[in-house]
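Example 147.
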Amino acid sequence: MREGIQIHIEQTQVQIERVEQAMEQLEARPGRKVCEAMRGLVEEAQHEIEQQDEKGPILDLVIVAGMQRIEHYEIAAYGTDVALAKALGEKEVADLLSETLEEERQTDLKLTDVTQKAIMPEALAGEEEEGGGDGGGGRWSRRRKAA
Ligand SMILES: [Fe+2]
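Predicted structure in complex with fe (ii) ion:
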C-alpha cells in the first residue's frame, strides 16, 4: 500500500508537469489555487476514517471509498478538460491531459480491484464470524441498519 502511495505521488508530479505544459501550449499563466471541491473530499475522507475505531477491513473499505471519490472527481475534471481541448482544436493539450485521464481511470480500476479481491472478502468473512449469535449481522450490518 505504501509503495502504491509513493507511485501515486510520483504520478501526481508528472500530472502537474503535464498541466504546466498544457498551459504553456495555450500561452496561459499557470497559477496555483486550492481546489475547494478536492479539499472537501479530502476532509470528508479524513472525517470518515476518524470515525472508525479499529483497524481492519472496514477501515480499509472506508479509506478506499474516500480515495475513489477523489479519483472520480479527477476523472470528471480531466474528462471535461480533454473534451474542451478537443472542441477548441488543441490536440496537443487534449493528448497531454488524456494521458492523465487514463492514469486516473487506471487508479480507479486498481482500487475497485483491490476492494473486490481483497478487502470485501475479508470484511464479509469478519461479518460471518461476528454475526453468529445475534440474529445475523455483525458490526457492519448493525451500522448499515443504523444509517
Ligand atoms: Fe488520482
